[in-house]
Amino acid sequence: MRTSLIMLSFVVGCVVEPTGAVPVQRTENSLPEAGVDADTDDDAAEDTGSEPETAGKPPPQCSSNDDCDDEVGCTINLCGEDGLCRYLPNQKWCNDDDECTIDTCNEQGGAFGGCGHKPRVCDDGNPCTLDECPDPAGCTHVTSGAACDDGNACTNDLCDPAGGCVFLPVVCDDGVMNTLDGCTPAGGCYHTTIECDAASPCPEPDPCQIVACQFGQCIGQPKVCTDNTDCTFDACQGGKCVFVPKPYACPEDGNPCTVEVCGPLGCTANPIECDDGKPYTDDWCDPAGGCQHQPIDGWCDTANQCEVGDACTVAVCLPNNTCTYVPKDCDDGIGCTVDKCDANGYCYSEPKDELCPNGQKCNPNVGSCAQCVAYSDCDDGDKCTVVSCLDGACQYNPSQCAGNEVCDPQTGWCELPTDWCEEDWQCSGKKEPCTKYKCQEGKCVSLDVSCDDGNHCTTDVCDTQLGWCTHEWIKCDDSDKCTNDWCDKDKGCQYEVWNTLCIDCATDNDCPTSLICEGLKAVQYTGVCKQYGCEHSEYTCFGSQCSEPMCADGSGCVYLDKCDDSNKCTSDSCDNEGCMHTPIPDCAP
């Protein structure tokens, strides 16, 4: 038909990634003939998207086609009548012989110019087919009825290419007169026998079943629906007859100008509609080739007649009075970005790190490849380093901790050192056995302590369980009942003969008055403290730095704790230098 707009010859989008281009020398003799599109290959004829040219940017001036070489092999370079260059994509140059790709030409030029290959969309608009492009042979459309399964056992699920899924009622007639036939979505068909009489009539029938009471039983027969047409499914639904065209029931007649449909009279061939809606074409159907759309000569005027093309293109008239569309220029001037145009015609850029050397990052903020874009690009693995990215360069600064805190390299948190202190009592928790700690220059340091108390009557050892030195009294016993066994702290054990009255005895009767018989020898009984339990009055109990000694009659030496200061806000303990009273934090007296 004739209308008021111009045919879209080339539609170039904005999403193809850059690929390598093969330079080619273009001359006026290599241009396409007037009225012939530069791209006639089926594999490249679809609108696919490409890197855009900026709308409004003046093209280079020229006097011949040779002045317009853009060094992109897949473009046709033209010098227009207005003395300005035109660059037309030639997708045929980019043909990869793969029917599963759409070949495009990115005419931006420079590092990103050249061919691109986008996966082809194989949607045939038929809901009953599975659309794929499995190999270079092209799209396949395999019928797939599984898409219409409604999970209802009372329907036959069909797929109509024109209308989508069709769900026909299942016919449950079992051919037995005295049964009532029905269906449940979960279980499917059922057949029951129901008795009836005047007092108990048959239940309300299925609207698609005729029910009557005969000879005491309910008799059911299905309602018959037929339109006497072979290309339809005939069924009763809700008491009404429905006739649904069978998919693919009408064979093609081989005429591309007709479409075969199923109607009340069966299969008929109806003419197809060839109107492309474009005012600048004559539209008709050729039985040899299908719909034809012939451009109308002399129609082109970009200001009025060229239709609104892709949002990423600008209309241009060709010398043969037809419209073509050149891409917008979205070049941001940054060598490491891929510049694109979205569906609304807005330019945007995608940084590509792989276009940068030596592992650098593409940083649009600085307009070039740089060391970093964000601080995460600068991670040095040191948790005590504060990293940042400033103007594309990594910055490393040590963590700043308050007061005496230092950064823990394992966690990155600021903490007080484990050996930090201000006063001696803060070192009390550091208990190496028999070691004294002092706070010196902010750190707890250990001072070696000897367990020797200078007393020859004690055994001096380091008790690793208690954590301090212990001094156990030496038992001076020569097993002679006629000697006085005791210990001198400066000399050690002493054994003095008791007296001259030490004689052999068996019982107390063998001893003089005021003597008792102990063992085999008689000794004077004084009744005062003796070694290990009241043996003589000169025996001395020696204490320690943390205990007060005393001699108890009958039990020997006992020791009283002398470190208890009766203050509930101190923790009382003893080390090698004596009693310690460590303040308890936050304790109210």
What does this structure look like?
Residues 36-50 have a biased composition (Acidic residues). This is Extracellular matrix protein. The protein is mainly beta and 589 residues long. Among the domains are: 145-245, no CATH class; 337-370, no CATH class; 379-415, no CATH class; 458-580, no CATH class. Helix content is 0%, strand content 37%. The strands form 20 sheets. A two-stranded antiparallel sheet has the order 1-2. Strands 3-4 form a two-stranded antiparallel ribbon. Strands 5-6 form a two-stranded antiparallel ribbon. A hairpin with a 2-residue loop joins strand 39 (570-575) and strand 40. The radius of gyration is 55 Å and the shape is elongated. Mean pLDDT is 74; it is low at 1-56 and 524-540.
List keywords for this structure.
40 strands, two-stranded antiparallel ribbon, two-stranded antiparallel sheet, disordered N terminus
Which SSEs are present, and which pair or pack?
Layout: E1 75-79, E2 85-89, E3 101-106, E4 114-119, E5 129-135, E6 138-143, E7 155-160, E8 164-169, E9 180-184, E10 188-192, E11 209-214, E12 217-222, E13 232-237, E14 240-245, E15 258-263, E16 266-271, E17 281-286, E18 290-295, E19 313-317, E20 323-327, E21 337-341, E22 347-351, E23 361-363, E24 368-370, E25 385-390, E26 393-398, E27 406-407, E28 414-415, E29 435-440, E30 443-448, E31 458-463, E32 468-473, E33 483-488, E34 492-497, E35 515-518, E36 521-524, E37 547-552, E38 556-561, E39 570-575, E40 578-583
Antiparallel strand pairs: 1-2, 3-4, 5-6, 7-8, 9-10, 11-12, 13-14, 15-16, 17-18, 19-20, 21-22, 23-24, 25-26, 27-28, 29-30, 31-32, 33-34, 35-36, 37-38, 39-40
